[in-house]
Amino acid sequence: MSKDRFQGKIVLVTGGNSGIGLAAAQGFAQEGARVAIAGRDPQTLKAALASLPGDALAIQADVARLSDLDRVIGDVVQAAGRIDALFVNAGIGFFAPIEASDEDLFDRQFAVNVKGAYFTIQKALPHMQPGSAIVINASSVVGMGLPNSSVYTATKAAIASLARSLALELAPRGIRLNVVNPGPTETPIFDRMGLDPEAAKGMTAQITASVPLQRFGSPDEIARAVLFLASDEASFVHGAALSVDGGLTAL
């Protein structure tokens, strides 16, 4: 594997200020890319930017707002002229049984996870040339049921379906689109689910027991799969969904 797979490439990562997004952004930058990251939290965005080598760019934005997406794409194109690889990673998750779910919980997750992903791709496409690549971060839950997470899992199933249709639509343009499906991963999203500490501990133990490798994955392990799908090493990989989940959905 070449250590300069992305030399001279321009890469945009949404949700690049923490977790899988940050690990991917760091990987892209270490392999020669000029990286732009977008995220909502100014503090984590600032810290993430400081961790990126090279002439990186950080843009505070909420992907659920189309005006913010226009600004993100505009800033990247103004600074670098194009987008060679796009990692559609920004996402949120809140777990609750159906009786405890309300309209706000439903709307917020669909706005970020589905609407945000869709319009990120739409607005980036005019600035992507043949040979460019898009990777969407979905989840291992797209192929399984998960109690108390009906809204979250529905958003991930939606973007997995979106990816299949867009892969066919973008093929004539020479733009590859693939999906990475992470399994349980040690990221800040588990701290934002609204669970009390005891419930979170129990959930973590239950999930770990269900993974054949008996552990959570690391953001770096997911990022390596993302970089592969975005690289020329995957030049004949299109419309694929790569599970990186310790065997959770395969065994």
Explain this structure to me?
This protein is an alpha/beta fold and 251 residues long. The chain has one domain: Rossmann fold (3-Layer(aba) Sandwich), CATH 3.40.50. The chain has helices at residues 19-30, 42-50, 66-80, 103-124, 150-170, 197-210, 219-230; strands at residues 10-14, 34-39, 57-60, 85-88, 133-137, 176-182, 241-244. The chain has a seven-stranded parallel beta sheet with strand order 3-2-1-4-5-6-7, with helices on both faces. α1 (19-30) links the parallel β1 (10-14) and β2 (34-39). α1 (19-30) packs across α7, α3 runs parallel beside α4 (103-124) and α4 packs parallel to α5 (150-170).
Q: End-to-end span in angstroms?
A: 28 Å
Oligomer: single chain
Uncertain spans, ≥5 residues at pLDDT below 50?
Answer: none
Largest sheet: 7 strands, parallel
Q: What is the overall shape?
A: globular
Rg measurement, Å: 17 Å
Estimated helix fraction: 40-55%
Number of helices: 7
Q: Just give the CATH class.
A: Alpha Beta
CATH superfamily: NAD(P)-binding Rossmann-like Domain
Strand order of the largest sheet: 3-2-1-4-5-6-7
Mean pLDDT: 92
CATH architecture designation: 3-Layer(aba) Sandwich
Q: Strand tally, please?
A: 7
Domain count, please report it. 1
Backbone structural class: alpha/beta
How much strand? Answer: 5-15%
* CATH fold-level label: Rossmann fold
Q: Helices and strands, in N-to-C order?
A: EHEHEHEHEHEHHE
Mind sketching the topology for me?
Elements: E1 10-14, H1 19-30, E2 34-39, H2 42-50, E3 57-60, H3 66-80, E4 85-88, H4 103-124, E5 133-137, H5 150-170, E6 176-182, H6 197-210, H7 219-230, E7 241-244
Parallel strand pairs: 1-2, 1-4, 2-3, 4-5, 5-6, 6-7
